[in-house]
Amino acid sequence: MTTDSGTPPTGPKASLALIDDVLALPFPAGEESEDSGVRSSGPGHHLLIVRAGQDFWDDASTETVEASEDEIEAEFSAVATALTERWGEPETVDLWPYLAEEASPVPEPLGQLSNLAGSMQLWRPPADAPGAGGRWLGLTVGQADPEFPIWLLAAVGDASTLPV
Predict the structure, then answer these.
(1) What is the model's pLDDT at position 30?
(2) Which domain of life is it from (predicted)?
């Protein structure tokens, strides 16, 4: 989907459409994994970069970083509000404990998310939501490294990948 100028649409409606698409997307079979650079998928999960700010390789000034943070946070807020209107109040999931977990493997996408963000908002869509039966949806803002863009991330996981 592109605009008349050939660029992908942006804004909360476009972000929600991307989230709806990944929520309905089947998980890869078996131990198969996929990574397109924008979406990674594996058994029982998808992780999507919904929106990326600019990178900070050439300009990491406070003003530039804050402007990018504000832009991504505004998108997060608008998308989170729309998801809350659909499915009710989200749960806040602390991701830090998954980062420190060394004794046993961390289920994905929680392992990836814990390297990018400290917490996420989590919704458990009702079973009758299109494509969402038995899945959870997480939304967070994260960054891989100070020079990298700030990302609005959506994670979809099979209910069994989220500890109770």
Answers:
(1) 80
(2) Bacteria
